[in-house]
Amino acid sequence: MARYALLSVSDKTGLIELAQSLVDRFGFELISSGGTSTVLEAAGIPTIKVADYTGFPEILAGRVKTLHPRIHGGILARRDRPEDQRDLGEHNVYPIDLVVVNLYPFQATIAQPNVSLAEAIEQIDIGGPTLIRAAAKNFAHVTVLSSPTQYADYLAELRQRETPSAEFRHECAQAAFWHTAAYDQAIAAYLSQSPTTTPTPEALPAVFNLTGRRQQLLRYGENPHQQAAWYYTGSMATGWAAANLVQGKELSFNNLLDLEAARSIIREFCGDRVQPTAVVVKHTNPCGVAEGKTIADAYQRALAADSVSAFGGIVALNQAIDPETATVLSKTFLECVVAPDCHPDALKILKAKPKLRLLLLPDLTQGPDVAIRAIAGGFLVQDIHHVPSVAEDWEVVTETKPTPDQLEELIFAWKVVKHVKSNAIVVSRDRATLGIGAGQMNRVGSVQIALSDAEDKAKGAVLASDGFFPFADSVQTAAIAGISCIIQPGGSLRDNDSIQAANEAGIVMICTNRRYFRH
């Protein structure tokens, strides 16, 4: 008795190889629709067109193809129910043992610029999810393959036994329901933005669903007694899940947290006409950030900012690793290094440090659009605005005005302080951090830590604060250390006290009218 498989795929990766094996080696009859049947016929693989099998043509420009009782009856029929088998016989319905379906590329479509609502709507698959759900529901008797990555495992199952194992069918059904859930979530999120043809991303949706695919189980979480796993969102691996781990053991929970912190900082220094820049991160806080004439120079300057904290740290570079940079990187114990690329000769040098995790991520600017944090009974969601530092929007509030070089330095310090845990203070000079005060319960403490780290180098340097100064004391402390310029959001009821203290000390003060708290 022939076995039947239904094939209807948008992503045709591996389709020909799968279909050929099903027909030639395992004796399947293939039923296919639309573009899938065209591809199979062009490859010389026999197939029964859905329209010929159902006796009903595709209609509505292809909107209706597989929504028919002869299709879904064959998928949903229970092989151990005589009444189901009787229905199949009476209506001449073939039992379908395999359903191979993946969906219209809705997410890829809406990711393109200037896509209209009408264009997006046409990429909402109807028949595909229905087929997947039907086959997944009947996994006791039917196998559903919703991704080309499953094809090889399915064929391996058939080589071992006539029918794939119950465990394999169960796993495929689970993957199928996750697949359709993520697909529906993407559609709902898109439509919730706006009912017009120009959706806007300002409002967060009324219902926020979070779906992830497990990339790997982690050895443990932040601490050894905590279980942890790494998930990626979407239908395909992106971001860190798509990064190339060139060498080193698997990434840990803390590695990933620190890598993302480093990536979020280095993205501030990516783009056209940017200087070579290096970031050194420890416990999600930067301990050194610097620009340089070369990427090796930038790293050495960032390392010099706090070489003690850099031990066991994470490094992010905005340019490819060359042999000179690889040589200086290998002189310090580092957990991870991430860069857009690595020259072959540099890789040979780094291989002498086999425990160093080296990751290549060509696009360091692509990050999440929202931040999610768990609280009792739910979670909080906020959007992430990647707002560039635009000096034209700032207000010089003191009598003394910044020189062009001082303004560039203030821009540099502001880019860094945005990524330091509150209360946050950054002292910098010559496009390199000198001292960073992070995570203190009061701003005075952060100022003191940053200035203490900077020591006598603070004279003539600039100071950036993620929040306003509620009192003049921090400005006065900065003046004593020799700080020449201060950048801060402003907005305190006592702004005038800080401005007056700056004027008395001859310090430049700029208010950005935007704060960057990081709790």
From TrEMBL:
It catalyses: IMP + H2O = 5-formamido-1-(5-phospho-D-ribosyl)imidazole-4-carboxamide; (6R)-10-formyltetrahydrofolate + 5-amino-1-(5-phospho-beta-D-ribosyl)imidazole-4-carboxamide = 5-formamido-1-(5-phospho-D-ribosyl)imidazole-4-carboxamide + (6S)-5,6,7,8-tetrahydrofolate. InterPro entries: AICAR_Tfase_dup_dom_sf, Cytidine_deaminase-like, MGS-like_dom, MGS-like_dom_sf, PurH-like. Coiled coil: none annotated. Its EC number is 2.1.2.3, 3.5.4.10. The keyword DNA-binding does not apply. Signal peptide: none annotated. Pathway: Purine metabolism; IMP biosynthesis via de novo pathway; IMP from 5-formamido-1-(5-phospho-D-ribosyl)imidazole-4-carboxamide: step 1/1; Purine metabolism; IMP biosynthesis via de novo pathway; 5-formamido-1-(5-phospho-D-ribosyl)imidazole-4-carboxamide from 5-amino-1-(5-phospho-D-ribosyl)imidazole-4-carboxamide (10-formyl THF route): step 1/1. The keyword Repeat does not apply. GO terms for molecular function: IMP cyclohydrolase activity; phosphoribosylaminoimidazolecarboxamide formyltransferase activity. Keywords: Hydrolase, Multifunctional enzyme, Purine biosynthesis, Transferase. Residues 1-146 form the MGS-like domain. It comes from the Bacteria. Pfam families: AICARFT_IMPCHas, MGS. Belongs to the PurH family. The IMP cyclohydrolase activity resides in the N-terminal region. This is Bifunctional purine biosynthesis protein PurH. It comes from Candidatus Synechococcus calcipolaris G9. The gene is purH.
